[in-house]
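Tokens help. Consider this.
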Amino acid sequence: MPKILVVDDDPGNAEVMQMVLESEGFQVKRICQSRQFEPSMTSFCPDLVLMDILLDANDGRDICNDLKADRSTSHIPVMLITAMLESQVSNIACDADDIMFKPFDYAALVNKVKNVLRRAATN
């Protein structure tokens, strides 16, 4: 069962995504503070990171780029979620594997998560 780390500074959003993904059989850990990211990566070892762009003290695009630049974590797919406009997202270059814009349908989220995981498994 793939493990997904959900990173969203809105506890309600994080909880709903966790419930939806767990109902699909994924093992999910959610965190709501960006300072918990590195310890969670080490202890949970996710197969996918699902992360909001606008976090409490950091920008999810920067965290994504750091993750992709590190040889030990560069293989982990990152899917960003955001309420930003598409034109605003490109202000910071990012190596994310996929992105979803809020509001989104949770069935679409599950489908995208499965597709990102499938692509990562074939690479």
Observations:
- The longest helix spans residues 106-122.
- Residues 69 and 95 are 9 Å apart (CA to CA).
